[in-house]
Design brief:
The protein is mostly beta strands. Helices cover 5% and strands 34% of the residues. β4 and β5 form a beta hairpin. The termini are far apart.
C-alpha cells in the first residue's frame, strides 16, 4: 500500500477570525496502518489538526483554506 501524507495545520483562532482554516506547520507520512507516524509516536499540538494531503501539493507555510478546504501555496498570488 502507498504511504499517506498528512499536514499538521495550525488552525486560525475561530473566536477572533471566524475562520476554520490555518497554516501548514509540518507535513509527515504514515504507513497505511500506523496510527501516529513512522518517525516516533507524536501527539497533535493543541490548536492544530492533522489533515490528509497530497505531498506534492502541500508544504509547510501553505494555507489550508476555510471555505474550500484545499491547500494553497501562500507565495502564489491570484492577481
Amino acid at each position: 500500500m502507498a504511504q499517506r501524507f498528512y499536514a499538521i495545520v495550525k488552525l486560525d483562532d475561530y473566536n477572533t477570525t471566524h475562520s476554520t482554516g490555518g497554516v501548514v506547520v509540518h507535513v509527515r507520512y504514515d504507513e497505511p496502518d500506523c496510527q501516529y507516524g513512522v518517525d516516533t509516536p507524536y501527539a497533535i499540538p493543541e490548536g492544530c489538526k492533522r489533515i490528509e494531503c497530497d505531498n506534492e501539493n502541500c508544504k509547510p507555510g501553505w494555507i489550508y483554506t476555510d471555505k474550500t478546504h484545499q491547500f494553497v501555496d501562500s507565495n502564489v498570488s491570484s492577481n
